[in-house]
User: Fold this.
Amino acid sequence: MSRPLQPRSAPVPLLCLASMSPRRQELLRQIGVPHLVAVPDVDEAVLPGEAAADYVVRIARSKARAVHAQGGALPVLAADTIVVVDGRICGKPADREAGVALLAQLSGRTHTVLSAVALASGSTIAHRLSTSEVRFRPLSRAECVSYWESGEPLDKAGGYAIQGRAAAFIEHLAGSYSGVMGLPLFETAQLLSAAGVPYWRGDAANTAAAAGCGAVR
Assistant:
């Protein structure tokens, strides 16, 4: 007689992700890291005269620090991603006009994507920075408007998602695909290894998710 299958328990979370981004959660699952999630409360305003690379690293570290300060026992992973054009940081477009204008600015040219990742563990915070160059093919205004109306650009840095419909716009990528998505996995794996946090840890599809990590002791 065959034995009944026993339900598989959810994997024990190895860290806390300081982000509610579905894309970052998906990327962590891709490398098999069970995790909790929390929302960091940080001021993301750019400081006067602050360079783009300094800004994105500062915000990633601030997110990790803010969640780690809640007192949870798990290491805290945080990330921040920005698009830079002509030295100017391009954030998430606020409305249709801004979104269409940003796509028109990216049309037919190369822009930089900076993605910083930080890991707070114990009394230390380490970080890595990923730099990618992305070239868009020329876009018509009708394409820019149609893409905006798809709803995809609303919460995306630079107003597009490489893993979505905007993949049809990208002529060339030099750098990290996962970094442009929002969590550079090469740099993330470096941080995890240095902190003794394993990845490729079996099936992490059943990610343990919670509203915060402070309750984990």
Residues 52-68 form the longest helix (17 residues). Confidence is low (pLDDT under 50) at residues 203-211. Residues 45 and 55 are 9 Å apart (CA to CA).
